[in-house]
Amino acid sequence: MPHPQLDRFKLNIKPLAERKDKVYIERDHVLPTAELSHPLTENGVKVIAETVERIKRARENGKSRMLTFGAHAIKNCLAPVFIKLMEDGWITHLATNGAGIIHDWEFAFQGHSSEDVRTNVDRGQFGVWQETGFYLNLALIVGAYRGMGYGESVGAFVEQEGLDIPAQDVLVAEIREKAETDPQQAAAAADLLTQVRAFDLKRGWMPVPHPSKRFGLQSAAYRLNIPFTSHPMIGHDIIYVHPMNQGAAIGRAAQRDFLAYANQVNNLDGGVHMSIGSAVMSPMIFEKSLSMSQNLWIQQGKHIDDHFMVIVDLQESHWDWSQGEPPMDNPDYYLRYNKSFNRMGGQMRYVTADNRDFLLAIVKGLEQP
Question: What's the whole-model pTM score?
Answer without folding.
Answer: 0.96
